[in-house]
Amino acid sequence: MTELAAGTILGYPRIGRRRELKHAVEAHWRGELEETALERVAADLRRDTRHRLADLGLGRADSAIPESFSFYDQVLDVAAAVGALPERFAHLRRADGTIPLAAYFTAARGEGDAAPLEMTKWFDTNYHYLVPEIGPETHFTLSSDRFARQVAEAVADGFTTRPVLVGPVTFLALSKTTDAAPAARPLDRLDDLLPVYVDLLAALRDAGAEWVQLDEPALVSQSLGYTDDELAAAAARAAEVLASAERRPAILVAAGYGQLSAAAWRALAASPVDAIAVDLIRGSIPAPTAGLASKVLVAGVIDGRNVWRGDLASAADAVDQVARLGAAATVAGTSTSLQHVPYDLDDETELDPRLVSWLAFADQKVRQIATLARGLRDGREAIADEVDAATAALADRRHAAGVRDGAVRDRVAALTPADRIRTPYEVRVAVQGAALGLPVLPTTTIGSFPQTGEIRRARARFGRGEIDADAYEGFLRDEIARVVELQKKVGLDVLVHGEAERNDMVQYFAENLDGFAVTRNGWVQSYGSRATRPSILWGDVSRPTPITVRWSAYAQSLSTSPVKGMLTGPVTILAWSFVRDDQPLSETADQVALALRDEIADLEGAGIAIVQVDEPALRELLPLTAADQPAYLAWSVASFRLATAGAADATQIHTHLCYSEFGVVIGAIAALDADVTSIEAARSRGEVISDVAASGFDHGIGPGVYDIHSPRIPSQAEVTALLERAAAELDVRRLWVNPDCGLKTRGYVETAASLRNIVAAARSVRARATADV
Which residues face 479 on adjacent strands? Predict the structure, then answer.
């Protein structure tokens, strides 16, 4: 086994510092960039990453640099490599059985009547992965040499890098079963999959890899339907098979995103794998156990998921404690891949310099890892200056103005239980029914309409000062009028203003709330080619002035149909921001909730009768360990209710949740006490409907009928089938008809066509439903 570097990271951003990969991939999808040109862009990004990481202090030849590139998603990468694409895409394979890039993208995006793979959140992050479909018909075979080609590419560039793959246990644990075996469990196919991993490891070794990283975060989760003991046994079996392979690199098993279960820790320690990486940000130092003397331990002491500058003194202490566990060697590392943070703080020239001193993006975190590695090699005194600088910055942050606001804290302290309770739903629904006069199966959208190039250009021109505020606001009013007119022509029952003024559903609020800062280039991948710029929540939160009222009121003035006010909920604002880590999330959530409560009151005053408070991240933040989940659900529900409980009975409160396993949190969804809840259902083909029915959920519910993350236009028949399934299992008087999510990422041609099909399907099912009643 070759020696692993004293410092390493578990992964690095891959979209490009200026989203070069996004632009190239989307140009390829539009037919404007050939595959060979796309491959050149990707190769350039990988080469730039290796050289950048070496410049920041990681070694070129000691496997410190991870090879963690992906065109779309790391789980899909493995699915393609082991041949685990569904049969509906089988015709896209080459004659030799390998899976080309075109098939890979089609599985992600769908084609014609072939729906794409389902999408859901990667553990408790805002990254979305594609869910493999595994059944008895799935034949595992090595179907791509892409991982090996990237290793060889690095060798040719003068680097010995460490390829990163989702491990076999996590790959199967995150998969879903196919209709051919709905009662089967994908993890039961482990022994069928492992021989393909053996072949894959051999190919990596032949290409020049000395180490391979197998990401196994399933071993920290109790939310995947498997027990700790089952996952630990699977990890032990995988380690036994892979480590006994005749031709392989050294194996690093990385278990980030939380506390490695005691059973999994013991199993990995006793196994023949060569190294184990543990998350010491979300988890704690594990207990001493047998088997460590022959292993390397990677101590994940620098946070891979947030942007606060690491406490180098505490990190170095933690590395020293891990070293005392008795392993052969100890390495300083990140807690997870750095794919969850932006590239480089040096790109943010408009941030307050004092705030900058408290922060670290990916490149700054790599430098911190290099510093800790130097401390391991040369002694703590060799890094004393860097440690002292980090300690001073953390102390300055604690005492800076705005971090604590007395007025905000007094208002939170004065809250009572009554501030989180509305009139009973049965009373509200009668009042709202009389006031709104909506038909059975009312149709609406989730909020946003396409963010066209024209909208983005106008926003950019305004930001550069090329047009003044009057011209920009005139443009936005014209865009809102166009969106309202389109909805009226399509025949929707409840309209939205389209959100043309919003760059992002969280950033827009962050720009208008005290306690936040926003970045210019802080892009982070959300899924595929999509990226967001999470805001930085650094201080106490308050609302200086109304945020959304004038736009919603203007849209309402254009129609006699109700127009929804559109707000982002407190949990989602936290989940999709980089949040302060110096106080409990529950306290920060209540501060945000009070700002939203004030906004709802102002919307009501402007004549808005329906207000949607989106919480797509409610499931996302659910802790991975069962013991921590009740407390999270209690405060997250309480913050939503604090935001909405001040609304009048006649004001209909909607919420929206997307791309989550709703069965896990259905009780919390009911406890939100929203009058109407819209949820993702189309991409999973209505699977959640049975969960909702079985739970006895009795408020308004809108299972999505249009998968907006795919360019496919759902047919009227497809939408009708989903609505009929919902109507068969749920009270039709409580059903709403809507897409899965907002339409921001879609184009107007497909949006209009899809909405027309939705309205036609709703009217058809409505006619039959009212006839039956």
Answer: none
